[in-house]
Amino acid sequence: MKYLLMIYDDEAAWAAKSPQELQDVMGEYYAFGDSIRGIMLGGEALQPTPTAKTVKVRDGQSLITDGPYAETKEQLGGFYLVECQSEDEAVQAAARIPGARWGAVEVRACQVFPEAPEHPA
């Protein structure tokens, strides 16, 4: 089963880190990525929320606003897509993500649509 591990953190706290602190934390993230090579399907860090756009379509018209959909204390900063044998395995992997120590990691199973046609990746 595929799981998305979504990392939520306070962008202001990241901006306040010294270059050495950033280097240390990123070293932890690289080590974590290496440790899940057998189950990781992908993952990315995201640009800060001021670069985001939120799109809604209402009555056939696109409504585009700057930033994320909702103001929150913690912002979605990145994710890993993993393939695990169980939810417990995915939760255990999420607990090892460095950001789980000061932010939060949401674990969500990907839905499977058995009748969905094959599509290129």
CATH homologous superfamily title: Dimeric alpha+beta barrel
| DSSP, total strands | 6
Calculate the terminal CA-CA distance, rounded to whole Å: 17 Å
Described by the principal axes of the CA atoms, the overall outline is flat
* Beta-strand content bin: 25-35%
CATH class placement: Alpha Beta
Discrete helix count: 3
Helix content: 25-40%
Label the CATH architecture.
Answer: 2-Layer Sandwich
- Low-pLDDT segments, ≥5 res: none
Supply the number of structural domains. Answer: 1
Averaged pLDDT, please? 92
What's the main sheet like? 4 strands, antiparallel
Radius of gyration in whole Å, from Cα?
Answer: 17 Å
| CATH fold label | Alpha-Beta Plaits
The structure class reads alpha+beta
What's the SSE pattern?
EHHEEEEHE
Which strands sit side by side, in order, in the main sheet? 2-5-1-6
Q: What would the keywords be for this entry?
A:
alpha+beta; Alpha-Beta Plaits; two-stranded antiparallel ribbon; 3 helices; 26% helix; flat
What this model shows, in words?
- The structure is a single chain.
- This protein has 121 residues and is α+β, with helices and mostly antiparallel strands.
- The protein has one domain: Dimeric alpha+beta barrel (Alpha-Beta Plaits).
- The chain contains three helices and six strands; from the N terminus they run βααββββαβ.
- The longest helix has 17 residues, at 19-35.
- The two termini are 17 Å apart.
